[in-house]
Protein 1
Amino acid sequence: MSSSLEKDVKTACEQVNRDRTRLMDIVREIQARHGCVCNEAMDSIAAELSIPRVEVESTVSFYAFLSETPKGKIVIRLCDDIVDRMQGVGGVAKVFEEELGIKFGETTSDGNITLQHAPCIGMCDQAPAALVNDVVVTRLSSDKARDIVKILRETGDPAKLITRFGDGNNAHPLVRAMVDNNVRKRGEVIFPHGLNPNAGLEKALPMTPQEVIRDINAARLRGRGGAGFPTGMKWNFTRSAEGEDKYVICNADEGEPGTFKDRAILTQRADLVFSGMTIAGYAIGAKNGIMYLRGEYAYLQKYLEDLLAKRREAGLLGKNVCGKEGFDFDIRIQMGAGAYVCGEETALISSCEGLRGDPKTRPPFPAQKGYCGNPTVVNNVETFCCVTRIIENGAAWFHGLGSKTSAGYKVLSISGDCAAPGVYEYPFGVKISQILQDVGAEDTMAIQVGGPSGQIIGKEDFDRAIDFDDLATGGSLIIFNSSRDVIGIAEYFMEFFIEESCGYCTPCRVGNTLLKKGLEKIQEGRGEPQDLEYLQQLGETIKVASRCGLGQTSSNPVLTSLKNFRSVYEAKVKPEEHGFNPDFDISAALSDAEAVADRKSMIY
Ligand code: SF4
């Protein structure tokens, strides 16, 4: 092993006090410095942390941003999600291949540039987009792709690709990104002008923790991640769970294609999020908070770390927060490394512990046994913002916003076939038809509500509302006009889930592949009417037999498109052309063979 690698491993381990749970930080550091975490590095990390080498290897092999074999000094990750495909990423990909003289998955012969696809980098409102190391490049075209290769060849520096800064804090010296916030509609909770992000925290600390939870309950706040679990109830469970050491985790790992609203919140409202996490820490009796930031948003890391440092200086974090005797609380940022499944809260906890992002079996729930076996609250970015605003303005204020059954506002990421893709903050109860009008969508055929794990709806549902009791969503709407192919859309989403499944359980690992094969068969004109029933049954089985939220929702694109676009499927299946006999009796067919062998077949 080279002396520089040995030295870097030692330093990376020392920086986290040889804490095994910080393995993600260590391997990310080595990956960044050496282009891979090679065998020697894994041996050395295992020795430094006194853990079996297989544990290091298991983590390294799990995440898309980590690699056991060398990658180029520069890695271009071209986003390949469905919106990027609709915006012409195929042409951009071709130019990258031609200009670099390599295919996707390969590295140039000089070892300088690796070309890869990424499933979603959170830039659907400015697609096609790519990550070049940690630098985000947006609104790509064939010409821009040529320029990118030329600049990288000449300078070897991805930072030179930044030709302009986006709005707001995207131009901050610690961000300096071409990303646009694209906040096109401001509501009363997250994006109003002139709010004080710490007002809620200052009001919370004179209250008792029980009073804080009471107000969150009275406001009827439900988690904004999609599942909609009552936040106050979750906090109560965690507060009353056994264990002195409690944790607050912020899920900043939005990874579903079409989702990017947390990007805008983290860029413009990070202090509101940190205030909410601190209030949660006070309410449940925690000393430590972790923000799990998706690897694709690494360009925000320094800015967020700086905000945390400023909050410590201002007494908003650390010992006796805001002068509150006995309330000590701090927050660290845990970077992810490109694994969609880590958006599932138990997988996210595994990742925070330095493990593969494998979901855990529930119960026990995180509120009972979460991070390192301790009671843990996991809420998402938007939920923590709501917490701060509720305590600032009172439960009645929040309760009075939105619809009868869903309190407050919802921030939506809207992309696809529309004139004004971006981030919109609406009160709950807003109709889909209103949204389509606001975003300039014409000739809309379908909308994917809630990302791939949500549902695809058609025209007859456009009068429905964004609401926990109607169209519930974590916040993503992808719009498709009538030129799009609904079965092709479902096929793409199955491709996504096949790629992102952790592979632990068979229904998810195998079932989704079978669903995709079924869709392919229909698309190729080989489908039979009974295939639709097969897809339905298989999809329902995957839902109930999978272990975690990913598998339990992965068949939704197929099931909801079958339900809402049945006629499209039916038009593609033609029994008479194939001569298929649906009443084939396998027992009867085997009877002669059984008689000859004098044995009974086990096939029924
Ligand atoms: Fe892994 Fe899928 Fe099973 Fe979840 S459902 S544990 S992602 S294989």
Note: Residues 506-523 form the longest helix (18 residues).
Protein 2
Amino acid sequence: MPYRTIIEPFRIKSVEAVKFTTREERREALVRAGYNVFRLHAEDVLIDLLTDSGTGAMSAAQWSAIMQADESYAGSRSFYRFESVIRDLTGFAHVIPTHQGRAAEHILFRTRLRPGQVVPNNNHFDTTRANVEAEDVEALDLVIEEGRVPGLIHPFKGNMDLGALERLLETRGERVPLVMVTVTNNSGGGQPVSLENLRGVRRICDRYRKPLFLDACRFAENAWFIKTREPGQAGRSPKAIAQEMFSLADGCTMSAKKDGLSNIGGFLAMNDPGWAEAARNLLILTEGFPTYGGLAGYDLEAIARGLEEVVEEEYLRYRIRSIEYLGEKLIGADVPIIRPPGGHAIYLDARALLPHVPPLQYPGIALANELYLEAGIRGAEIGTVMFGLRPDGSERPGPMDLVRLAIPRRVYTQSHVDYVAEAVIAVAGLRGRMRGYRIVSAPKTLRHFTAAFAPLE
Ligand code: F0G
């Protein structure tokens, strides 16, 4: 094709109006929300980049599959379609539907972990870490050194530090029940993991006889990065690359709210029949019968179709380019972000932007709130509020202080993204006036969702 412009590979059949508010209305809404954007009414948000989870637009094919769904309690036709699509993609023998990703994590961890153990991952995401720690197990992040430095360019910043994994298994191997790798690495910036690195993790797991599980929420975005960045992979289809990624693991947890292109749902999949049996027994207790697992038949249909659409080349080319496009504009204006841009979001480096706000005064909260106040854009802090609280109740700076602008799939157009870029650049120009925050009230786990803050003078 001779043209350089990468267009949205769809046209729009149904639209939803967004609400415009005044700065004063947003100021009042923020006060009512305890200065925590999670607590805003979504209606008061103009462009909602809080998360890419469950916020995507479904295709006409998904909506029509929904009408074809079989709502039988047991043995529904929609389950068998769901199972066959996932078996074809992942190769895993046992496919267990769950209402979302964290339910799959809970079932895996509750059935496999014992107090005092250690689970290594490149980076645990918030709910994954919390579900590990809920079993009195240590959640250990072993991402490569480059993955911890926001401005440093590396094609696979999500890679696992193989030396560190090997040392862990050598010294404390008997306490490690399984190894996890998150693709793409969400809390590290939506950064991909290479096939070469996954093969390395597999070799180490084989040597120490440890099962390997993928946290596969954004597997298709990861496959696209492999196709475009890893030597020798350019000629393969994203689906073939994804199939190889899964073939290197023994199982996966999946939130279908991301690369399942669905508004709800997830699954746990694995090869070991004994592990699967224990998981299904807990599933029946907490989620539902094994052929629906907390989902409606129509959700199973939407996910099955979504998993087929998400590996289409035209979709992934547009998806990854749309994030990169926003990243290029911000980099061009010297706004500090995690580089290179990841697969589902731009991560603003609030610690670098606001050096006068120390981590324990939450620079990510300061920046997220200013962005909402100025432009009606909602992002999410991924920093000291999310990751700074230790299981013993003490607090320390998170690994980074970021504000994630997550782009919902197939929802916003290029002009929305242009507006976001313009607004972020303007807000970055106001950096001098932003002040830190203190916590007024917060729960003991996953505090970022519900904490209330107050601005410091
Ligand atoms: N693992 C990763 C890497 C995730 O990003 C998420 C969710 C989960 C597991 C849990 O899945 O929400 O379906 O229970 N991440 C969302 C986000 C919420 O905003 O990044 P879930």
Note: The chain is about 40% helix and 10% strand.
